[in-house]
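Incident review: delayed structure delivery

Summary: a single-chain prediction request sat in the queue longer than the usual turnaround. Root cause was a stuck worker, restarted by the on-call engineer. No data loss occurred. The affected request and its eventual output are reproduced below so the record is complete for anyone auditing the incident later.

Affected input:
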Amino acid sequence: MAARPLARWPRPPPRVLLVARSGGQDGGGELVAEVGEGDGDATGDGDATGDDDAVLRFLADDAGLGPARALKAMDGYTPLRNYCVEGKLAPRLRYLVEEVGLGPAGAAKVIARWPPVLGYDARRTIAPAVRYLVEELGLGRDGAAKLIIGCPSVLGISVEDNMALKVRYLAEELGLGRAGAVKVITRFPSVLNLSVDDNIAPKVRYLSEELGLGWAGAVKVITKHPSVLGYNVEDNLAPKMRYLAEELGLGRDGAAKVIARCPSVLGLRVEENLAPKVRYLSEELGLGWAGGGAVKVIAIILAYPTVFGMSIDSKLRPTLRFVEDNFPDTSLSVSMLLATYSLAGRLVPRVQLLQRHGQTGRFAASSMACMTPATFCEKVGITAEEYDEEVEMCKMEHAISPSARKPVIDRV
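Output delivered after worker restart:
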């Protein structure tokens, strides 16, 4: 399915400085917004030469960035040094705080993350973008503000020539529908910065064809993990596929199954995330690799691909130790299932509640973990309030005390 070509930007007037954006992790940059548009600016016309000290004080104090972030903003976007505080910067800050609805704290975050916003024309650039987010996408004022804080550069994107094209591609050509497109955008706002032709459409084709997910599978992966659209193929996606399919030995179909069930694996690093989990399973858990060990490791990964996203020190090791201490006859496969649940939020409090009510050993480990809170309370004969209090207590102990990573379940 061919992606619709993006409209070309017209040649800018000689005076206008264009801010280039990298286009996410792929570096597929697009021109975004005009900076330094004094004429016709709804917030004031001041493009007069600014004063470094005055600009620094304004950013640090009035805009709330503080000295360090203010200096970083000025170094990262040098035109700020030439802006007049009273004629341009102060009105632009008020516009972001009041009209856009970011509030002081939100405006500070936006300016710190994307200093060029202080050069955008409020009436011709910022206002149309905000109106599109609020009204056309149906995000409302608060939803639009949240998206803008997460991805400030969206304020410099042309609506008709850029933003609307991305929405149409996601909704119509990708088949997500309007609601699905909005969901992707709110979860990964940077998709609005990407080129359809250079970034999004090629990524969809890669997922569908090269990774073997098929069109429907690619759409599901994008829906579950939208940030995959920002990953670079050569530096990110291809190495994960090679590792899973070839080095780990899952083959193309097995790798596709892992990616389909756990798309976030595409955002992990091989040497820092994937390979250490394989070593943990084969070495520390004693599955080995030779003589059938690899088959066991692969079976665990295919059954529980989310293992790749778990921390060995703070998740896998303490959870499996807890299961071994309290349910010694539990198989490794079931133990890995239990590792997908929260240790402090589910496993420890339930075991402690069973102890307190004299029901230790009543349930198998998997049964105990898989029950909904309501079912667990009903079967154990406790109130929801008692259950919630125990969960909160365990979470607090886990967060405060390092020893909570090695749970002692005899607290009564």
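Verification: Residues 1-48, 402-412 have pLDDT under 50 and may be disordered.
Action items: add queue-age alerting; document worker restart procedure.
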